[in-house]
Design a protein that fits this description.
Layout lengths: L1 H71 L7 E3 L8 H4 L4 E4 L13 E4 L11 H4 L4 E6 L5 E9 L3 E7 L10 E3 L3 E8 L3 H5 L5 E7 L5 E2 L1 E3 L5 E3 L3 E2 L5 E2 L4 E2 L9 E9 L4 H4 L11 E6 L15 E7 L22 E7 L23 H15 L1
Parallel strand pairs: 1-5, 7-17
Antiparallel strand pairs: 2-3, 2-4, 4-5, 6-8, 8-14, 8-15, 9-10, 9-13, 9-16, 11-12, 16-17, 18-19
């Protein structure tokens, strides 16, 4: 009886077991689906956050770039414009007028016509102070009303001025000698009339110091005595004269080989150097700086090694017979030989020179790398 009942229940038990197995498989499958769905949603959230962060960063970058650009090329009434600048917005300086006029010195503005008139009808939003058009007419330019009379000052157009000097901050060596002792700290003095942009346009002019090594390689950054690099590209200049720190030390011969370095400064704000590349204007004079330990004005005396040559002159003794009572011959002695000394040509001992090697400077651009690492860290933390 019991055996029969077991046989009858066996199919049911098997069915129940199959149901349990199927239910377990479904639960495992659903769990995996839920895990995959959760991971997918999590990744989507992280991606959305990353996109938002990049978008915010891009908007902020564009905002600051737009602010700087708008400030450096926006001219208001009475501002200075430098010959060579282009792409200037002078609408705020014109006050609705479309012409400007220039009067010669001491001219009566109210009772005379301008010496030079320029129509700016299609140039107000993008004005260029062309050297061809304005270099002969520096000074104040006035707005002209419809009657051609002065209607207040518009702006002042002047020649840019730029020069650079090298100064030794370790010892008071006169850098006019174009030499600073190897191992001394160096700073630059930038003389200019461009710094007024900082006050008038709320953005300083950017000036780049150019340094060319003995082998012709160009440097974009310089190292001080502690091995710290400083960029010399697009330096914001806010004063005149403007001093950099002690940013250069040529004591490391692996980095700065002995020889002559050539230096100058350039300013290309609103493409003024591209349009007006004149020495002393948008580009300073070039300076040669010798990297060596000894003052080039001090000469080392050459070592002379005298040499003598001996030429023996032999004299043969002769006997002069002198009759005497005894019949003895008396010999008269003479010096047997003499040395004639003649000086030899001077021999110059050359001083040894060191071979020159150079490891050019490199640019340290880390901003975008830092941002990228920050975003990755943020996403990982999330």
């Amino acid at each position: 009886m019991i055996s029969r009942n077991i046989r009858e229940l066996s199919p049911n038990l098997k069915y129940i077991q199959d149901l349990r197995i199927n239910h377990l498989v479904k639960r495992i499958f659903l769990s995996h689906l839920l895990i995959l769905k959760y991971k997918k949603e999590r990744w989507m959230i992280m991606i959305k956050k990353a996109v938002k962060l990049l978008f915010i960063f891009g908007v902020i970058s564009l905002f600051f770039m737009g602010t700087v650009t708008a400030a450096i090329n926006t001219i208001v009434q009475g501002n200075v414009i430098f010959i060579g600048e282009e792409g200037l917005d002078i609408s705020a300086a014109m006050g609705g007028d479309n012409q400007i006029g220039w009067w010669a010195s001491a001219a009566d503005l109210s009772g005379s016509s301008p010496t030079k008139t320029v129509d700016l009808r299609n140039r107000i939003a993008s004005f260029s102070a062309s050297p061809i058009e304005f270099s002969d007419y520096p000074g104040n330019w006035y707005r002209l009303n419809s009657a051609g009379r002065a209607d207040g000052i518009a702006f002042n157009i002047i020649d840019p001025q730029l020069d650079i000097k090298v100064e030794d901050t370790t010892v008071p060596v006169d850098a006019a000698l174009n030499w600073i002792p190897t191992g001394d700290d160096i700073r630059f003095r930038i003389e200019n009339n461009l710094a007024q942009m900082a006050n008038q346009r709320s953005s300083p002019p950017l000036i780049t110091i150019k340094v060319k090594g003995p082998d012709g390689g160009m440097y974009t950054s310089l190292y001080d005595a502690g091995g710290n690099p400083t960029s010399i590209v697009n330096i914001p200049v806010t004063t005149t004269p403007f001093y950099t720190g002690s940013i250069w030390n040529m004591g490391n011969r692996d980095r700065y080989s002995p020889g002559t370095y050539t230096l100058w400064a350039e300013c290309n704000v609103n493409k003024m150097n591209d349009n007006y590349d004149v020495t002393g204007k948008t580009r300073s004079r070039e300076i040669s700086l010798l990297n060596q330990g000894q003052n080039p004005l001090i000469t080392i005396p050459t070592t002379q090694i005298p040499q003598t040559s001996s030429t023996p002159i032999q004299t043969i003794a002769t006997s002069l017979p002198t009759p005497t009572g005894s019949g003895t011959t008396i010999f008269t002695p003479t010096p047997s030989q003499t040395l004639a000394t003649t000086p030899s040509p001077d021999i110059t001992v050359l001083q040894p020179t060191r071979s020159q090697t150079k490891t050019p400077g490199f640019e340290a651009i880390l901003a975008f790398s830092a941002i990228f690492l920050g975003v990755v860290f943020y996403l990982k933390k999330e």
